[in-house]
Design goal:
197 residues; 65% helix; AhpD-like; mainly alpha; disordered C terminus
Length: 197
């Protein structure tokens, strides 16, 4: 049972009910709805990271799993192990990132995992590690990675403090990610536009 009760549909305003209805029924999103003014901005940022960033999805998922491990977030781990596999990330890589077995990852993934863990654990990844990631990814994707790691570190703290439980059946099971991304995309935008190194 969560430490802070989830709001019921009857307790939500029309905007919050409508927004939650358009998203997977995740306990973490339902908890966000306890703070209705934050619900839209929080879900918008989460979707920007997952659906509209240029950062390679495989590296992003390795980063998120590394954050989940560093913060001890069983909820993030469960959700993102499943999502990683749905995105085609190799199962051995998913297991390695979740376990912190960096030697089982290739050099790029190992660097991303080290960076993500440092952001989650130490707040600052440090100059040398950040420079190495910048060399690998360029300015835009590195900044996206920093935001991703910081976001999931923050969400892990919300999950832990609110006592958010892992769903019995993970709500992301069976989601068509391309269809979801198309439905959430803002009309007239090109997610590939504006790359800079």
């Amino acid at each position: 049972m969560s430490r802070i009760p989830y709001p019921t549909d009857a307790e939500l305003d029309d905007d919050a009910r409508s927004l939650l209805a358009a998203l997977p029924p995740l306990n973490v999103l339902r908890m966000f709805a306890n703070a209705p003014a934050a619900l839209g901005p929080l879900t918008d940022l989460g979707q920007a990271i997952l659906l509209r960033a240029e950062l390679d999805p495989r590296l992003r998922q390795i980063a998120i799993l590394s954050v989940a491990r560093a913060t001890g977030s069983a909820y993030e781990r469960a959700q993102h192990e499943q999502l990683s596999r749905m995105l085609g990330v190799d199962g051995a890589e998913v297991d390695a990132a979740s376990a912190g077995d960096l030697q089982a990852l290739d050099s790029d993934a190992r660097l991303i995992a080290r960076f993500a863990e440092a952001v989650a654990r130490d707040v600052d990844a440090g100059e040398e590690l950040t420079a190495a990631v910048l060399e690998l990814l360029g300015r835009r994707r590195t900044t996206e990675l920093v935001i991703c790691c910081a976001w999931y570190s923050a969400v892990a703290r919300i999950i832990a403090t609110c006592g958010i439980e892992v769903e019995e059946t993970l709500p992301t099971a069976g989601i068509d990610l391309e269809e979801w991304a198309d439905a959430q995309a803002e009309p007239g935008t090109d997610k590939r536009e504006g790359e800079s190194r």
